Amino acid sequence: MATEIERKFLVARPPSEDALGRGVHYRQGYLAGEGDVDTRIRISDDEAWITVKAGRGVARTEVEVPVSLAAAESLWPHTAGRRLEKDRYLVTVEGGTAEVDRYAGELAGLWTVEVEFASEEAAAAFAPPAWFGVDITEVDGWSNGALARRGRPEDPPGSG
Amino acid sequence: MATEIERKFLVARPPSEDALGRGVHYRQGYLAGEGDVDTRIRISDDEAWITVKAGRGVARTEVEVPVSLAAAESLWPHTAGRRLEKDRYLVTVEGGTAEVDRYAGELAGLWTVEVEFASEEAAAAFAPPAWFGVDITEVDGWSNGALARRGRPEDPPGSG
Lengths: 160, 160
Hints:
Chain A is an alpha+beta fold. Chain A has four helices and nine strands, in the order E-H-E-E-E-E-H-E-E-E-H-E-H.
């Protein structure tokens, strides 16, 4: 589906290692951003994808296509200064599956969590569990593209 | 192959319709450009691709992956102001196959031709046929991304 309906939060209290389970390590390099479009490569240990995200807010257009590791690595040098690394964990919450990201490298210490929904109504109705922090879905500077380019911003009002 | 070695020229005298043969119509919308990277979608009558080009000059990194028409159309609205249309024809020349582009819409009247090579040596050794015009491989403003965003620039010195 080309429309992704998603909310993103800071993590107030990271789940235990047991609750997190086994994560997947990703490197993400942002190829180019312009207007409301951002394009990236994502590389795991053995797979890679090109992803295009367009639009702002809860409902965005997202297209992701697999690409060979060799092709992804050939693009990687062109993402210098626009990169991040993270481990992603899938945690079940009421209303869906939470994608918990523990950032590494320059963003170490940062955790975020995203939940994808089937409709904007479901997104609006979602009651975040207590371990979720502030909703950063529409807060500037907290997209992965922004984090990769400019690092971690000031925490938004209401955090911590 | 992720490295594309290519030279691009204006067309001094377009080949006859017979020599051009049957073309393929493409719409190209540029998703985002940043640094030396540009990303686009290309849509023909029945296929579509996401393409990433990085670097400058004769040898560039290029990765192209097929994407569904539905996914490509979902991204198209996000390329407003960064589009072009053309018909592409394949014409045999000594040293390879020339990709002849006849632009349409706001760029109507413009023709360019590209030839891809196996090595930079072969690219340097290429003797363009008489119907080729000025070499625009390294002339600013003549990439398709630039043409789509800013329209046709002044013709470079030596043209016409």
